Amino acid sequence: MSWTDERVETLKKMWADGQSASQIAKELGGVTRNAVIGKVHRLGLSNRVGNGAERAEPEEEVVAAPPRVEPAAPAEPPRPAPEPRVAAERPAPAPAAPAPAVHAAPIPMRKAIIPAGQPLPPQPSANEISPEALASVREVEKHAKRLTLMELTERTCKWPIGDPATEDFWFCGLPSLAGKPYCEAHVGVAFQPMSARRDRRR
DNA sequence: CCCTGATTCGC
DNA sequence: GCGAATCAGG
């Protein structure tokens, strides 16, 4: 593959969007992330730092991109722990908590966090989670890697834990199942069988 | 170990 | 110009 104008354009656009080199490479196809990085440098689009234009605050924008069509859309977390640690009223001193809505806040905060135009995918909600499954999840969450939003990858569990409005919030981060947004434990509670038969024999 | 971008250097 | 190998980091 060669760097046609079109491909370069895609590269520029994606790079400007803050996409990683590997993501760009995957999108373009036929090139490795090294090639992308090499091209980026040759084009002089290094980092948006040091350039003529000052970019004090890049501002991570993790909002779902409208034009982009992801094969396996990362299903947004449906509804994590039934009762994490409801913050009755937290001062929320959060100085700069650019936590883009990753999912509707499971916690009844003052105001609901609206997911940016993200059409919530079909979510087989199930309020009833078997006690054992819940216990399992609890156990797993003890080992959670406590990743931040930016640390999530396609291979990390994106299950949110805690209160998004406070420091007491993180993502599970454990290895996610292939193609799934969550780890084994969280997939278990996220994707329940439709019928809410709470006592399924096992 | 997963990932990130940065740099080098033979082609 | 290209990009694999390598480097340096999180």
Count of DSSP helices?
5
Indicate the overall shape: elongated
> Spans with pLDDT under 50 lasting ≥5 residues?
49-110, 117-126
Termini separation comes to: 52 Å
Helices and strands, in order, run as HHHHEEH
Please state the oligomeric state of the protein chains shown.
single chain
InterPro entries: GcrA (IPR011681)
Pfam families: GcrA
Protein name: GcrA cell cycle regulator
Compact description:
With 202 residues, this protein is mainly alpha-helical. The protein has helices spanning 5-16, 21-28, 33-42, 131-142, 184-190, and strands at residues 160-162, 169-171. A two-stranded antiparallel sheet has the order 1-2.
Description:
By secondary structure, the chain is an all-alpha fold. Among the domains are: 5-43; 131-200, no CATH class. The protein contains five helices and two strands, in the order ααααββα. The protein has a two-stranded antiparallel sheet. Helix 1 (5-16) runs antiparallel to helix 2, helix 2 (21-28) crosses helix 3 (33-42) and helix 4 runs antiparallel to helix 5. It is elongated, with a radius of gyration of 20 Å. The protein binds a DNA duplex (11 and 10 nucleotides) through residues 2-3, 20-22, 31-42, 46-47, 151, 153, 155-156, 175. This is GcrA cell cycle regulator. Residues 63-73 have a biased composition (Low complexity). Residues 46-101 are annotated as: Disordered.
